[in-house]
Write a sequence for this structure.
């Protein structure tokens, strides 16, 4: 752990003072982390990983290893106890991550479609991609009540025109969302880490010019979700829950199927509801960033009444009962349909 932190800091040519300023962790503590006289807390690990650009999973493993060694030391039965613990952990992991047969079936179908898609990559067209991204902006905004039609959304984004009878907010929502799509594609191409800074940047784009004082900032007040019985956490809990959110991502990103990982990241973010406005759009963009990063395509949830109601109902069930199966199935079905449509377009 101590070597890992010091080496990462030196590779970035950073002083201990700079790491302290960017993480909010006392400078003396960081020095002690590097000498091994103190250990970071679990909450401090994501901050150190982000600033020092260390894979959080690597950092967590090193931290847990030292914690285990400190606890058991040279106890006589240490190795035997660790073997028993390993078997128990494996059993728990297996039971927790068992996927229902209905969900596994659609994931298998999705993987077959993706395999087929990979053989058609050379036929990818910028114009097709541009049209599908425009549809995604239109549908994602329609879910949230934006009344611009698909054609009007095109005129606003690609022609720079103003549509009579539509509010300035609706125009900005279209422009901002399209720019946010460009941003998540940029992150995907750079293979950037999904962390707090990037999620705040996505949200900043969504609310830019609409609520500039709230763009890219966690809420400081309690909120309610219109039409839902679910009550989001109090504002003082948001920062901690967001830390846990990124820890969960780093812990599960290499073990969950990418479609399930994307759906979970969506549901978990919108359940925390960390922002005054723009939670849905930001959560869907994070979901699609995960999908794009794994070679899938944008899962475009339609904004018509039936799809919107199914989306909200499965999401609320996940939030109020902790039963996520219906929501995961819904997102998987959307991704499957998006893949089928894309393949149908490019293979003609």
């Amino acid at each position: 752990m101590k070597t890992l932190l010091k080496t990462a800091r030196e590779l970035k040519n950073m002083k201990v003072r700079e790491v302290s300023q960017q993480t909010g962790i006392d400078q003396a503590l960081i020095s002690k982390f590097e000498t091994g006289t103190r250990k970071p807390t679990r909450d401090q690990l994501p901050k150190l990983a982000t600033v020092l650009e260390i894979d959080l999973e690597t950092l967590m493993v090193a931290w847990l290893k030292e914690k285990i060694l400190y606890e058991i030391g040279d106890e006589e039965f240490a190795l035997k106890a660790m073997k028993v613990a390993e078997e128990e952990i494996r059993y728990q992991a297996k039971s927790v991550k068992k996927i229902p047969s209905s969900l596994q079936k659609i994931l298998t179908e999705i993987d077959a479609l993706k395999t087929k898609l990979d053989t058609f990559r050379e036929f990818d067209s910028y114009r097709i991609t541009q049209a599908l991204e425009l549809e995604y902006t239109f549908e994602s905004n329609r879910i949230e009540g934006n009344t611009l039609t698909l054609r009007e959304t095109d005129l606003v984004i690609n022609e720079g025109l103003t549509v009579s009878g539509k509010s300035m907010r609706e125009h900005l929502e279209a422009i901002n969302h399209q720019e946010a799509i460009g941003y998540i594609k940029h992150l995907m191409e750079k293979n950037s880490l999904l962390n707090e800074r990037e999620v705040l940047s996505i949200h900043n784009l969504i609310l830019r010019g609409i609520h500039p004082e709230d763009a890219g900032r966690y809420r400081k007040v309690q909120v309610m979700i219109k039409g839902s019985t679910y009550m989001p956490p109090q504002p003082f809990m948001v920062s901690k829950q967001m830390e846990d959110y990124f820890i969960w991502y780093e812990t599960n990103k290499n073990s969950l199927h990418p479609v399930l990982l994307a759906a979970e990241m969506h549901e978990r973010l919108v359940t925390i509801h960390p922002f005054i406005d723009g939670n849905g759009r930001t959560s869907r963009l994070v979901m699609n960033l995960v999908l794009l990063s794994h070679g899938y395509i944008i899962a475009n949830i339609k904004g018509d009444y039936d799809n919107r109601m199914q989306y909200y109902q499965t999401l609320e069930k996940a939030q109020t009962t902790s039963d996520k199966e219906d929501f995961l199935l819904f997102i998987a079905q959307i991704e499957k349909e998006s893949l089928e449509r894309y393949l149908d377009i490019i293979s003609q």
Q: What stands out?
A: The two ends are 54 Å apart (CA to CA). The chain has a mean pLDDT of 91. Residues 168-190 form the longest helix (23 residues). The CA atoms of residues 311 and 330 lie 7 Å apart.
